[in-house]
Amino acid sequence: MKKYISVIVVAFFFLIWEIAARLNILDTQFIPAFSTVIKETLAMAASGDLFKHIFASLLRLFFGIGLAVLISLPLGFLLAGWTPRLSAFLNPLFTNLSMANPFTLIPVFMLLLGMGEVSKIGIIFWVTLWPALFSAISGVRQIDPVVLKAARAMGASGVKIFFAIILPGSVNRIFTGVKSSVTLGFTVLMGAEMIGSKAGLGFIIFTSNKNYNIPKLYVGILMIAITGALVNLLIEKMQKSIVVWEENVDRIM
Q: What is the pLDDT of residues 47-73, one digit of tens each?
């Protein structure tokens, strides 16, 4: 039953939205009925336009977040596992860099990298790098040092310790960081696609607002929410399929 609670809550929200619009509780000039948004969504899907925008956004996210994960995970393991003093020294710098407002950095990335795809992927990479990096560092740090010392005492090599202890022990934290990166990536995607784009969900929102096509604007917002939720659900499924030892421990206990 717990699995369906979130679905019921979302369905109830959309039902209230529809009823409120039909009873003129909402100003449909600015907040159209949910059914109106669905009709616009179906029309865009039938023309193929919607899928073109979704694909463009997902491609930017894939490259931006993928590059961030590929760099942050080895760097996090290296800093926390092999150079902890350097990690502690750099932590204030990393924290300050991660707190920079991504929307204020968009013009900087556009200026340095141009108005094309590179700047959009670049800003997504920058924003999503930090949660993945911090989660990797945190994952290594929370491993019991006694376990690591015992493994070394038994003659285990650094590579074996990494794959047998460090990686399995930190993988849950890593997935948490990746999910945070995805959330931030979708947030900054809207801003990045509003400048110099010809496709994307953020582009839909920007052009719809500019042309005062309110139903289409809500299609963009709705698709970002749905796509983000589906990507997070996919990551959770991957996490459950990879972290199988925790389920086995729960069954034994």
A: 999 999 999 999 999 999 999 999 999
DSSP 210-238: HHT-HHHHHHHHHHHHHHHHHHHHHHHHH
Residue with tokens 């939720």: 229
Nearest to 94 by CA among 107, 79, 106, 83: 79
- Residues 153-174 have a mean pLDDT of 81
| φ, ψ (nearest 5 deg) of residue 222 | -65, -40
Is pLDDT at 180 greater than 60 in this prediction?
yes
Distances 230 to 7, 78, 109, 183, 246 between C-alpha atoms, Å: 13, 32, 28, 11, 24
The CA distance from 50 to 54, in Å, is 6
Q: By the 8 A CB rule, do 73 and 174 touch?
A: yes
The CATH T-level fold of domain 51-252 is MetI-like fold (1.10.3720)
First-to-last alpha carbon distance for the chain, in angstroms, is 23
pTM listed for this prediction: 0.85
Q: How many CB atoms lie within 10 A of CB 43?
A: 14
Question: d(Cα 176, Cα 244) in Å, to the nearest integer?
Answer: 16
Tally the C-alpha atoms within 13 A of residue 218's C-alpha that lie toward its C-beta. Answer: 19
**Structure tokens, 2:** 């717990």
List the alpha helices (DSSP H) in 78-157.
84-98, 102-113, 117-141, 145-153
Conformation bin of residue 200: beta by default, left when phi > 0, alpha when psi is -120 to 50: left
Q: Which residues lie closer than 8 Å to 216 by C-beta, 6 or more apart?
A: 40, 44, 204, 208
CA distances from 155 to 81, 159, 167 (A): 18, 12, 18
Tokens found for residue 87? 């990690």
